[in-house]
Design a protein that fits this description.
single chain
Amino acid sequence: MDLKTVIDSAPTLKKPRRTFTAEFKHQLIQQCLQPDTSVAKVAMQHQINANLLHKWIRQFRSMPPALTTQSSVQVDFLPIVLPSTPVKQEVPPPPVPEKKAFAHIRIPLHKEQCSARDQVIEIEWPVESVTELLLLIQGLTQ
């Protein structure tokens, strides 16, 4: 007799593979996550292998938070009571007129024969038009 025929002819008593619903898995996981609860004890109470229950817990913890909440749980919103006083809008302050900056320029005129009083040219000129001032000074020195 061939060994292969003996193994093939022997009756097998396989139990059908059990399947568990997502609600059942979630219920057991929530029991295991309670403080002072043994995973092995919960597994024995429900006649499943503790390693399988540990696997479910690992899978639960690796899921994104949005997927771990049950869809049947409804979150109610609290009403917000707003005051009836009108909201004041801040009015911007009136624009401050810009003060133009002026340069005070003193140009001493020295001549070899001069009196005790030296002559000085004093000019107040807006800073933003420096190029025109340069043309004026060049015109005076020629």
